[in-house]
Amino acid sequence: MKKLLASTALIAALALPAVAEQHMDPNAKPGGNITVTYKDDVATLDPAIGYDWQNWSMIKSLFDGLMDYEPGTTTLRPGLAESYEISDDGMTFTFHLRPGVKFHNGREMVAEDVKYSLDRVTNPATQSPGAGFFGAIEGYDAVASGEAETLSGVTVVDPQTVQIKLSRPDATFLHVMALNFASVVPQEAVEAAGGDFGKQPVGTGAFKLGEWTIGQRLVFEKNADYWRDGLPYLDTVTFEVGQEPIVALLRLQNGEVDVPGDGIPPAKFQEVMADPEQAARVVEGGQLQTGYITLNVTTPPLDQVEVRKAINMAINKDRIVQLINGRAVPANQPLPPSMPGYTTDYAGYAYDPEAAKQMLADAGLPDGFETELYVMNTDPNPRIAQAIQQDLAAIGVNASIQSLAQANVIEAGGAGTAPMIWSGGMAWIADFPDPSNFYGPILGCAGAVEGGWNWSKFCDEALDAEATAADSMVSQEGEERLKMWSDVYMKVMEEAPWVPVFNEQRYTMKSARMGGDDALYVDPVSIPVNYDYVYVTD
């Protein structure tokens, strides 16, 4: 076996004490509080469950996994694992834990906690939308089917060492171990919460939950025992919920808010960018994102591929991009253009309402049909839904709009009760920069379960096998593997369980007193903000 560090650039860093932090900002001023606003309340802070734009960075600040990322980047680095070893066949990972790491309840974290956490996230009773990420671990299928309660491939070697055996090579496995779903949690805290761990979270992260007043605010407090020396900089972070985005922007302009969690209201975007003082506080970042409409393939008449293709041809994507002030480009496939594996010579379904009407007629629906379109109720999503509704009406499809809070849309999608969903506000942003991440949780069979994020409920076992073969190549790079992924997504588009609509840029704002690199405010893995590293300057 060969011993590896998560990044060769970290060899010098790991020669220092385990808690030394090599990304400290010399300009940072410790202390202070920031205020972040959101329109909706937070659904959960359980790392096995939480999977939306709003709670992702919150959870990441409360918990840690074996692997992590350099702040503001997608470069892997050690997390709770100080180092690791990979067998020559790429099938066995041995992680050596950092000594002395404590949970928020004061107990030291050990290897048994890692095993418990992985068993828990893959247990069907947990209903984790991320369970499928761990499908390569030996024994996953037995746990998923209920035949076993623990993963046979996860072994506690000693209190500071855990070994994970895979049933097949997985080029993305170290990325998977950096996901929130792989966060390490203490069994006693989960059991004491009695099914309410999402409201009573206990992790090893930079912050711990100090207060949660439902419908009003959450307060995160600095973890004085955090294992990364000198972090976090902030004493507290206050998340105020129930704040309309336009009100949040006004409060930011008045110095009462530091980060509007829902971003810049689209109706105010041009006004903000035209004001030099406000524009100076705007942060723009690229993202591996696709906004799409899911078409539930188990709901008639969407169970007919011709009907799904007709809907693809009915949507005027250019007009929708105009609704968000041109902050995106039209999409023609699940992968965004900057993702490896993107098929550059694929044109997608052309906007052609007349051809769409003919296709519906050929499918036995010359008069169209009635359906429902679910949408998150934060602007611009209801306006986008109305544009989609108008496009569908033009081909005889009458879609009533169900405009709900984010958590309610996610619930309906997971339950399979929503015929169509506009994913805006919940649209897919890559958990890690690999083409496989756009398949398993949102297009694969593993995500098409109760509570999963495959809201189209599309499940093609033959395609799943092709996806598995692609990820069984040990190397993450290589033209052959990317060609395999390109083929998978082209076959997805043949079945049309989605309407890919656009690939969006991220824009947010920060108050004048906020410090830290701009990349921390559009962090690709701590979406939307990396709270561990930002600070205030006053």
Strand fraction equals 15-25%
Briefly note the CATH topology name of the largest domain.
Answer: Dipeptide-binding Protein, domain 3
Helix content: 25-40%
CATH architectural name of the largest domain = Roll
Question: In words, what does this structure look like?
Answer:
- The chain is α+β, with helices and mostly antiparallel strands and 538 residues long.
- It has three domains: 2-12 and 20-26 and 43-192, Dipeptide-binding Protein, domain 1, CATH 3.90.76; 207-286 and 506-536, Periplasmic binding protein-like II (D-Maltodextrin-Binding Protein, domain 2, 3-Layer(aba) Sandwich), CATH 3.40.190; 289-504, Dipeptide-binding Protein, domain 3 (Roll), CATH 3.10.105.10.
- It is 25% helix and 20% strand.
- The chain has 16 helices and 23 strands.
- It has helices at 11-14, 56-62, 111-122, 140-144, 173-176, 187-192, 245-253, 269-274, 276-279, 305-314, 317-323, 353-362, 381-393, 406-415, 461-471, 479-495; strands spanning 2-4, 33-38, 67-69, 76-78, 81-86, 92-97, 154-158, 161-165, 207-213, 217-222, 236-241, 259-260, 282-285, 289-295, 328-330, 369-376, 397-404, 420-422, 428-429, 498-504, 506-509, 514-515, 535-536.
- Strands 14, 15, 16, 17, 18, 19 and 20 form a seven-stranded mixed β-sheet that branches. A five-stranded antiparallel β-sheet has the order 1-5-6-8-7, with helices on one face.
- A hairpin with a 2-residue loop joins strand 7 and strand 8.
- Helix 15 runs antiparallel to helix 16 (479-495).
- The longest helix has 17 residues, at 479-495.
- The chain is globular.
- The termini are far apart.
- The model is unreliable at 1-19 (pLDDT under 50).
- It is found in: Periplasm.
- Keywords: Signal, Transport.
- Belongs to the bacterial solute-binding protein 5 family.
- One of its GO terms (molecular function) is peptide transmembrane transporter activity.
- Residues 1-20 form the signal peptide.
